[in-house]
Structures are given as C-alpha cells and as structure tokens.
Amino acid sequence: MLVLWLLLVVVGGGAMLWSTIKTQVVDGDMWREKARKREYTERIEPARRGTIFSSDGKVLATTVPVCDLCLDLGRWPKRDSKGAPIVKNGVVEMESCITSDSAFRANLGTVCRILHEQFPNKSVGYYHDRIMKEYIKQRPSRCLYVERRVPYSQWSAIRSLKGWERCVVTKTSDGSVTSYVRAHIYGNLGENTIGLHYKTPKQEGYTGLEGFYDTVLRGQDGIYKCRRLTRGTWLPEEESWEYGADLDSTLLQRRVDGKSIISTIDTRYQDIAESALRKSMNQYGGQRGCAILMEVSTGYVLACSSLTRDTNGRLSENLWSNVAVSDHYEPGSTFKTVAMTAMLNDKKIALDTAKRVRAGGVKRFSSTSGEINDGHGYATDTANLAGVLAKSSNVGMCELAWEYYAGRREDLKKGIKEIFPFGKMQPDLAVIETNTGIVKLNSDRDFLNLSYGYSATVTPLQLVTFYNGIANGGRMMKPLFCREVLDGRRRSVVKPVVLNEHICSEETAKQMREMLVGVVEHGTGNIIYNTVYGIGGKTGTTQGINDKSIKNSSFVGFFPADNPRYTCLVLLERTSIAGRHSAAPVFKQIADCVVAFDSELGSVRLQDSGRVVNPVITKGNQRQLAEAYRLLGLPFAVTDTVGASTGWTIFDNEQECYKPYTVPTDVVPNCYGMTIRDAMKLLRGMGLKVRFTGQGKVKNQNPKARTPIVRGSTVVLELGN
Q1: N or C, where is the chain less crowded by C-beta within 10 Å?
Q2: Are residues 614 and 653 in contact, defined by beta-carbon separation less than 8 angstroms?
Q3: How many domains, in total, are found in the chain?
Q4: Final residue before a domain boundary, out of 150, 171, 192
C-alpha cells in the first residue's frame, strides 16, 4: 500500500513538473504572447477633424462632443443596527436612491424639458414616464440609457442640477459616455454643399466639401501601445509599467489633427438664396430646384442651394444628389444665349440682322419640322438679334439657324461645343456627376430645336458657368467651393482656375451683355427690372413631352449691369409656372441682398437720377430713421424737423419725403410697413399687448387699423419681406 502511494506521488509530481516545464519552456512563448495581448494592446486616439468655415467667418461644420445620457438609479436595502435588512409586511425596505428622493423629483421636470427641446419628436411626458417607470422599481437599473448623443452642453446642464450630479453616469463598462460627432452649426443650411456623412454596407464617407477635402480635414489618428490598468481602463505603457520609459517606445503613430478649410459659401447669401427658393417652390410647386450665386472674376460659388421634395411633400437637401451639379435638363430659352454667341463667333451674322418673329407656326423649313410657336406677342413681323433675344423668339432663332447653318449643321454644333462646358465640371465637391451633351442632329426638327435649347442637356452649374464667362468678358472660370486651406497659421489659397480663356471676344461678350440687359429692361425679364443697379439675364421655360403643364422654369444672369460682379442661376424643375414668374423673382431677391451687403457697391444708393426711391421702412420713429440714414450716408428728406424729431413719421409717396405721423388715441394705429421694434413700442405705449409671427416688416395686423381700442387687448402682427 505504501509503495502504491509513493508511486502515485511520484507519477503525480512528475506530471505536474512536466506540465510546469511544458507551460513555461515548451509553450512559454505562446502563453506569454496571449498574456501580452490580453494585458497590452494598441489603442487609437482619433484625430480631431478640421473645421469648415464660411467666407464671412462663420463656422459651418465642426466636430463637437456628445454624450449618452445614462442614469444610475440604484437602491440598497435599509439595514438595522446589526446590519440586517429591514423587512416590513414581507417586503424589504429600500433606500430612496444614490441621491435624495426630493432633489431627484424636484429637477426631473427640468431634465425632461431639456431633452424635449433637443429631441422635439419625443415629448416631455415620454421622458418623464420612461425615467419614473424605472425609478420606482424595487431594483432599478444602475445604467439606464435615456437618450444617446445628447449635446455636451445639455448633458452638462443636466449633470449640474441638484441631486443629479451622482445620478448621471460618466463612464460605462464600454468606456466613456462621451464621443465626437460632426455638426452643422447652421442646421440644414447648405448642408448638401458642406457635406453629409453616409454609410452603406460597401463603403462609408462624406459628400460635398467634406468628401472632396476628406484627406485634408480628417488628419491622422494617433496609435499608442497601452497596458490594461483595470477593466475598461487603459494607460500608455510608460505610465503604468516602467517609470521614466521613453515616450517614443509607446507612440506608434503621432496624432495629427485635420486642417481646416474656408469655403466660398457666404452664410448671408446662402440663407437668402435658400429661403427665396423654398418660398417660390412652396408657392408654385416643383419637385427639385436650385439657386447658384457665383463671383464673376474668380468663379467662387458664394451660395448653392439644392432642394428636393420628398414623398411627404417636404423640401430638403438630398444626401446623394446635388441638383446644381447632378441634374440634367433641357434649358430652353436660356440656351439661346449660347447659340447666338456661337453664331456671332462665326461672324456670319450681324447685330442688325432682321428676322421674322411673328408668333405662329413655321412650316417652310421642312415637312417634318412640325409647328414652332413663340407664345410672345410682337408689334412687328421682324426684329434684330437684340429683339429676338429680348422677346425670346423661337421663330427668330429658327430663322437664323436655318438661313445660316441649314447646310452646315455640324459647324453650329461644333461652335456651341467649343464655348459651352458640356464635359464634367469636376467641382471641388464629392458629388455624382455624369457626362452631358448635345442630342444627335438626326432630323430637321432636332436641328431647329438646338437653336432654342431643346436638343441639348445641361446641368445648372454648366449653364451658370457659361453665363459667368459672358459676364467676365469671355473668360470662363471653373466653379470653386473652397477659398483656403488652414494649417495652423499657414494659409494655402485655392487659386481661381481658367477653363477657357476666350469663349468669345471681349467685343462679342459686351454685345451679349447689352442684349441680356435688354431682356430685363424691355423683354421677358421685365418683371425684375430695376434702375438702381441693373440686371442682365435670360428667362427659360421648357415644357414636358407628355404633359405640357409641367415645366422646368429658370432664370440666369448677372449684376450689376454695367460692371458685372456676380452671376446667378435659379431653376425650378417640374413646376407649373413660367420662369419669368417663378425663377426670376428669386434671382431678384438674391441680387438685392448681395448689393445691400457688398461694401464695394457703396455707390448704389436709394436714389436714381435725382429721384428718391421709396425706402424699405415706410413708417417709424423719426429720430431713429434719421440716424440710420446718416450712418448710411443718405439724405433724409423730411417736411418737418421742428418738434418731430422724437415722434413718429411716415413716408409720403407723392412728395417723396417723410412727414409727421399723428398717432390716434382712440383707435388701433396702422402699423403696416413698420419694424417690429417700432410697432411694439407704439402699441405698448397705447396699453395694448403684442404678439407677432414671421420676420421682416409688418404686413398685416389683427385687429385692423382704426378699430376702436380695448385697453389690455392683444394685437397680432404678421411680418414679412
């Protein structure tokens, strides 16, 4: 028996010895490597993505911290002096929470309101019920996820509330609750151009500026060798392993934050472009639309709004498609400028060439050409080139094309392709862009259509680039969306790029500009005619093949007329109204805004040939109006300056000056045309309450003017431009 026990001890000891030797010597390297991988790892320190600024110094997109709001609602049993749980009626009594019950409940409503303001699709009651349902449980969650990606400022505000500082979890088993996301500071303003993040099963990335300049903005992540300290806590190796270790021994790749860029987008112009376009599309319909504003001399795009109507009828910027760059459409009459420029380059026609323009069918060209209608009335049967363009005569363009190019149609096609950028524009945006081109001239009708814009497909960006070349004296610039790249204090300017040095001679460009100014002064664009700074441009309307009521409406042109500084295009797709009524007014609103903000256009005043033009503010406080005119360097015409400097004044259209306005004492005054500040001061001074909606000047009020006053009643003001 003793021998058996000794044998077991020897065999067992030998097995243990062999196992130890095998673990430490034979398989030692393998186990040490596994232990190293468990205790050591390579951790990535994400680089901070660069900021995108607007040309007027605003932040368009930047990286901001967000936090998951998690609550620790843990409870513990109440215990007696001996440490045993206190039981009443068979139920263990619990402590209220890690904080006092009164403090927790007192600020619960504030927390719910903060969350509702940030996530308006979820009500205050939703958050209250969600938190309280867990809070009243016998054993509530120690980590209740209430909402993810709460902005850091709101998360911090919740954590600072009395009684909540211990409830808000700062670290979970997965690590910190804080992460970083890309944020558009101005919401959806120009977000398609700025760029949106996307993720598909096959790829992930950004659109717009974010995508094109991704390698510049994203920087380089840092990679460090780290050692596990506790569960979920990792430290750089030298901090936790060997005192005085060289930092380079743990640093595998140094973190380099991304560079910032300054875009060409101006938030003031982008805002008015998007607002005016949205308003027109809501009024006149349209499935898609865009507005582009370009600087003539550089090609910098100062505003680019692209709106798409979804299945619910809402207008928004589409993730995958930028209307300005991606949409192909037949431009219609705006293409007449291209065809006429090509004809003038060919030197086969003269400006005073007279052609038949009388509205009606044109059958003499070919038996297959069908009917061509103008839709515009003419006082005469013929008109010169300026008249053909001003009245947008399809008949006149066909007459020119048939007489001079019927026998050499490829020459006209070649001339157009030489001056118009039909290829990909390749702007500095990550967008879907495909080739466009002229439809093959298979028939007489195709050839005639080409002369007035129905046998060509273009993108809005291509068309505005051509018009920008005309405004720039024949020099065509590439559209650019980035001005500078910032690397600390170093600034790298994105220089303008010339696409075509001469699409036409300076003389031809001047002639075309004069004809386009004529379109606005006494042609189809006269709806936006003004004598303050002058506009040159062309209306365009194309009808659907199957449904003539569906139209693509556009207006493209430049301003000021004498020395063009800006080019603009507005397009509404699948609308029901012609371009002169839907697109042209949007152009005018954008142009007015640009002229008002451009300090270099300071010579443009509220006067024209000595005549005072009606001001924007037609009624208000005389002293404040006089001061505003003084700061603007404008004359303040007033009939009475004695005793009225502190009173109210109104603009008299007949006398073209301001005169005193006597405020009634027993009826509601007329606030039409006043700023909201003046209107509120006037009405509150009469003992009335005020509510208002919208923005701009007062355009409507309820009760109406001259209604008997009821002290303490409310006057509702509607504001608008």
Answers
A1: N
A2: yes
A3: 3
A4: 171
